């Protein structure tokens, strides 16, 4: 049972293991029926139902976790519960990682549906995994990340306005997230990872016209790099000795820039994979 959708994803916890179980079961539909690892796969399939239920239960929990945000859209009392309104949306442990896990299952499922062996699965098995990674399911997760990102951007704008009272305030990002009360830049705990996951789910994100400006302004990450020295000085960036790391620093942001520029140049929103992350998930 996942008690908090903000800590819904990691390869170290049941959600991550459940994702790998589902993916592996689907991938093995292409194997010969009596392959050498049939016994191991048979044991693995015993956990199919529990794995699907765990991911589906996490999706169902997200609206209840976000209900207080709907009652307090200004986010002024965001700290009345554990964590801020914009917290828990990063890749390594949060909602963005959970979204990416669903997208991985969705991609694996799309490949499996082309196989005759997929149709030999029980109808209930096919239906439950198809619902799990449907547009409706992804919309729940994307909506939560976007909602919290908008509240985080408002909070960030207020803090900048207070700090720079009477001074010119540069263009501020329309989306912002934090992790344990701090704002990071990189791909694991930072805004880059959250944006990357949203870019990967553009098939869902693009359906909501109200969110289109936020997608197009993903390049706002450049603003954070311009402010990195101030973040370090104010203590807002934890990794003061590792400003270039993929997890928390600017090397992760470079990957996001490459993704955005690729889409702008080609006019396509079919992007590349998340660096490092996909490699980990696809290891045999």
UniProtKB/TrEMBL annotation:
* Listed GO biological process terms: carbohydrate metabolic process; peptide modification
InterPro entries to which the protein is assigned, alphabetical: 6hp_glycosidase-like_sf (IPR012341), LANC-like (IPR007822)
This entry carries the following GO cellular component terms, namely: plasma membrane
**Name of the protein:** Lanthionine synthetase C family protein
Q: Could you tell me which species this protein originates from?
A: Coprinopsis marcescibilis
